[in-house]
């Protein structure tokens, strides 16, 4: 019983709530799409994105900086150098909206100019004070994600007195900041930030209690794909976490997720189409 939302992504319409939307992950780092050497090849990245669209992705999330636990921040110029050619190339060849995964307002702004239409801010409008105004200027939907700490520090034994209460309060503050900057609350998507300042147990409880985020009245996005909580439960390395990802996606959708951010688009599309059919049956 997800609420339905229609999201205008700068001319591209996303209908959320009946059919689960799949966001395909496009990591544009030199170790993901190299030209055979040390350099990033934008065309290979674009080809991978187009394959994800053929497999059923509704959004492509382009990110240039690794936000894995313990990762160092990436200089602005290098982040721009990685993501802009890919966004330019992809926006000419794909119909689906492109999101820019960044917490820097300057990167978001340049990405929107280059053809992106959604901002995916892992800080939930808490790091860069200019992010709200960039979103408002372009009328771009923003994913507001919860994080405790920073990517560098977040996994140092995170503790919560009230896990879902703290996440909800942080996301509500993100929605407030967006509105204060002039972005309508209708343009905000909320995300509990699986893996960002959470223990294995916290991540499992977030999925178990995801329905509580519906009190925010906004579409819900989750990003469980291949994350370490799956590795911890199943004792599997990152390349072997597909079934754990699919279980997390199925439960997350049943508990109210409108959008799932994943690496493995084809199998996830199949799982969410089936879960959607079960949820819609008889209505
Ligand atoms: C293997 C591969 C294991 C990647 C872990 C990872 C989210 C997100 C990330 C999320 C939103 C990641 C940018 C972390 N996670 N954005 N971004 N929600 N909105 N780690 O959960 O994928 S990066």
Task: Report what the structure shows.
The chain is an alpha/beta fold and 283 residues long. Helix content is 40%, strand content 16%. The chain contains nine helices and ten strands. The strands form two sheets. Strands 8-7-6-5-4-3-10-9 form an eight-stranded parallel sheet. A hairpin with a 2-residue loop joins strand 1 and strand 2. Helix 4 crosses helix 5 (163-180) and helix 6 crosses helix 7 (228-234). It is globular. The N and C termini lie close together (10 Å). The mean pLDDT is 95. Ligand 8Y4 binds at residues 63, 67-68, 101, 120, 122, 143, 145, 191, 193-194, 221, 223, 226-227, 238, 261.
Helix content: 25-40%
The bound ligands are:
ligand 8Y4
| Mean pLDDT across residues | 95
Secondary-structure class? alpha/beta
Identify the strand order in the major beta sheet.
8-7-6-5-4-3-10-9
Round the Cα radius of gyration to an integer and report it.
17 Å
What is the general shape?
Answer: globular
Unreliably modeled segments: none
β-strand percent reads 15-25%
Question: What tags apply to this protein structure?
Answer:
283 residues, alpha/beta, eight-stranded parallel beta sheet, 9 helices, binds ligand 8Y4
Strand and helix layout:
Blueprint: E1 5-9, E2 12-16, E3 21-27, H1 42-54, E4 59-63, H2 76-93, E5 98-101, H3 105-114, E6 118-121, H4 131-138, E7 142-145, H5 163-180, E8 188-191, H6 200-208, E9 221-222, H7 228-234, H8 242-254, E10 259-262, H9 265-280
Parallel strand pairs: 3-4, 3-10, 4-5, 5-6, 6-7, 7-8, 9-10
Antiparallel strand pairs: 1-2
The structure holds ligand 8Y4.
């Amino acid at each position: 019983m997800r609420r339905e939302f229609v999201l205008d992504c700068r001319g591209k319409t996303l209908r959320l709530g009946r059919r689960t939307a799949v966001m395909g992950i496009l990591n544009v780092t030199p170790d993901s799409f190299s030209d055979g050497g040390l350099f990033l090849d934008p065309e290979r990245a674009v080809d991978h994105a187009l394959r994800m669209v053929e497999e059923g992705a509704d959004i492509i999330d382009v990110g240039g900086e690794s936000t894995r636990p313990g990762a160092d921040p990436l200089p602005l110029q290098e982040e721009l150098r990685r993501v802009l050619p890919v966004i330019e190339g992809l926006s000419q060849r794909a119909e689906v909206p492109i999101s820019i995964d960044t917490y820097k307002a300057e990167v978001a702004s340049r990405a929107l100019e280059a053809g992106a239409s959604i901002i995916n801010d892992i800080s939930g409008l808490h790091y860069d004070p200019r992010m709200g105004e960039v979103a408002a200027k372009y009328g771009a939907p923003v994913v507001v994600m919860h994080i405790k700490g920073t990517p560098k520090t977040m996994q140092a034994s995170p503790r919560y007195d009230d896990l879902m209460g703290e996440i909800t309060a942080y996301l509500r503050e993100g929605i407030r900041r967006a509105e204060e900057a002039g972005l309508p609350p209708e343009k905000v998507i909320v995300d509990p930030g699986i893996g960002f300042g959470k223990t294995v147990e916290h991540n499992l409880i977030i999925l178990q209690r995801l329905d509580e985020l519906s009190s925010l009245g906004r579409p819900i996005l989750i990003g469980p794909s291949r994350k370490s909580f799956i590795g911890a439960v199943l004792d599997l390395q990152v390349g072997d976490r597909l079934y754990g990802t699919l279980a997390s996606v199925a439960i997350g959708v049943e508990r109210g997720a409108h959008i799932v951010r994943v690496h493995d688009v084809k199998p996830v599309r199949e799982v969410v189409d089936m879960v959607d059919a079960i949820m819609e049956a008889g209505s």
